[in-house]
Write a structure and sequence with these properties.
The chain is of the alpha/beta class and 192 residues long. The chain is 40% helix and 24% strand. The protein has a single domain (44-89, 97-191), classed as Vaccinia Virus protein VP39 (Rossmann fold, 3-Layer(aba) Sandwich), CATH 3.40.50.150. The chain has a 7-stranded mixed beta sheet, sandwiched between helices. The structure holds S-adenosylmethionine.
């Protein structure tokens, strides 16, 4: 297990405390912006870097058939307890799915935690296994001191990511649309 994932494995029980709050937050965003993505329900959706499953759970509540996936066993245990199908996988190894296996692939707060080289793997692999859309819920270009502080403690690639998105995604997708879901967060809607 890489250091980055080991850290998430350790903090999984703490992350779980925020699950209900996160579900409220994500569900409201999905309710508001889903009509801009699709009118279909019951589509197969893969959520990468699911953590305890709050984003995945919110899509499931909205009617999608969801598979969650994470590299940290501690997160997977919480995710299963939260009523999701969840598997262990490292997105940096080739995803164990055929091309176009899922209508939609999602990932919340995963991309900014990865190096540029690892984000490229994320973009390439998510584009390969998604038939219709890839949705990245992540930070917007509007930098924020509090977020910068927390992310520097976490050792993420926050600043690099917000300066590079959405342009770096455009290499791997036919089209990338940005929906500002609030001042500090975007949905990056990518068409494979
Ligand atoms: C910031 S958390 C976000 C969790 C969840 N998406 C949410 O919104 O609450 C990032 C998650 O990505 C997972 N992760 C990081 N690198 C990964 C990798 N290479 N493969 C799979 N999961 C990874 C971590 O274990 C962690 O659960």
């Amino acid at each position: 297990m890489k250091g980055h994932v080991r850290k998430f494995n350790l903090i999984a029980p703490i992350y779980q405390f925020f699950f209900k709050f996160q579900v409220l937050y994500y569900s409201e965003i999905i309710r508001k912006y889903l009509p801009e993505l699709t009118s279909e329900r019951e589509e197969c959706l893969l959520d990468l870097g699911s953590g305890t499953g709050a984003f995945a759970f919110s899509w499931q509540k909205a009617g999608f058939k969801v598979l969650a996936a994470d590299a940290a066993p501690g997160m997977i245990r919480q995710c299963l307890k939260n009523g999701l199908d969840c598997i262990e996988l490292d997105i940096l190894e080739r995803l164990p799915f055929a091309d176009n296996s899922f209508k939609i692939v999602t990932a919340a707060y995963l991309a900014h935690g990865l190096t540029k080289a690892d984000r490229e793997i994320l973009y390439r692999e998510s584009s390969r296994v998604a038939e219709k859309l890839v949705v990245f819920h992540d930070f917007s270009a509007r930098s924020n001191l509090f977020i910068s502080f927390i992310e520097s403690l976490e050792g993420s690639f926050y600043k690099e990511f917000i300066n590079a998105a959405p342009y770096e995604m455009e290499i791997y997708f036919q089209n990338v649309r940005v929906i500002p879901v609030n001042p500090w967060h975007n949905w990056y809607i990518c068409e494979p």
